[in-house]
Amino acid sequence: METMRHIVLLLIWMKLLPSNQCADLLHPESDVTSSHGHYPPMYCKYTHIVFKGDTGAFHYKSHRDLHKQCSFAGTDIWEFKKDPDLDIEKCTETYDQGHIFTIFYYYGSNYFHLHYDMMLPLFAEIMKTGSREGTAAFLPTVESERLKKLNWDTVAFDDDSNYWVQTVKLLLGKHDAYRPMNDKLRTPGYTICFKKAYFGSPRFEFDNRDVVRNFIKYAKQMHNITEYNIETPLVGIISRSNRRRILNEADVVKALSEIVPTVLIEFTGMTYREQVQLMQKYSVLIGMNGAGLMNALYLPKTSVAIQLVPYKAGLNFNEFGKLLKSRGPYIEWHNQHEELTVPMPGDPHRNRPDTILHIDEMKELVTEALELISKQKHNVKTEL
Q1: Distance CA 258, CA 251 (A)
Q2: GO terms for molecular function, please (predicted)?
Q3: Residues 148 and 36 both lie in one domain
Q4: How many structural domains is the chain composed of?
Q5: For residue 40, is the peptide bond before it cis, meaning its omega torsion is within 30 degrees of 0?
Q6: What pLDDT is stored for residue 26 in this prediction?
């Protein structure tokens, strides 16, 4: 009875307050802090912010223009509005944390950018901030252009079987919500409240072995994939179909098969889980610089990843290398033979040329990889 009396008195007191003071009680003042981001280059944390479906914007309560303190490369991918009448009681959903971020969706998305720009930085932040405690909502976003306003009409999230949707959902905890930012979110009267909301992806050191390996372990656990010892060595060569192709891949497979069983791999049509599962078979994975090679992250611990780089290519092979070295054994091969290069028209930076692989050099690479595996297994037995 005493508790009920206090509640009644509080309600009467709030009724007598001026409306602006009552609003202060209902919704706390918002604030914002920023730090260097990975993508966009600014990473912003808002407190007590509300998404409104009516406006398609994030509303905050403050006398200051908080959004001007945290600009994403001079433009706002997401829209922010100062709202003095913000009222938390009107929210449809409430979460302890929100993660609002972009996914790379150009040319049908890209497996490398999904890992590099989204999954690994966000995973590191989630582990650091403890998003697994309490509730969280994840709001993936597609830009109209790079670093331009979001595209509400995107079809990126229409099919849950697409691998980019599956990679986003991998990050969700048991009690987390998935709320893609498309036209379905712009429902009149629909609101989402966040006690804290993080915009973008944070800066991340990709040579951080602990985080990279914890992410790999987490991904396999979430997919119920068990890593097992490979008794018979198997080499996989990633086949590419559009650019940076291996033009003599059949000859390479035949030549390497004289040393160790070797097969071609095509990832087309596979789900994210199927790609991760497939990697558990290979002792050595060979791939030209490109999105498919990102699957090397999920190789067994002692397996070797080999990145092939076209002749004098202006590509992101350093980023690939840093990440794959953090995973485990890694070898990098650069084509030094201009005569084995088939350039593509309109490609001044040599980003897309096809390559005829030097057979003897490929044999040497695989022999080196198998020796690496043997040394690792010997070291493990010695430690035991």
Answers
A1: 11
A2: glycosyltransferase activity
A3: yes
A4: 2
A5: yes
A6: 60
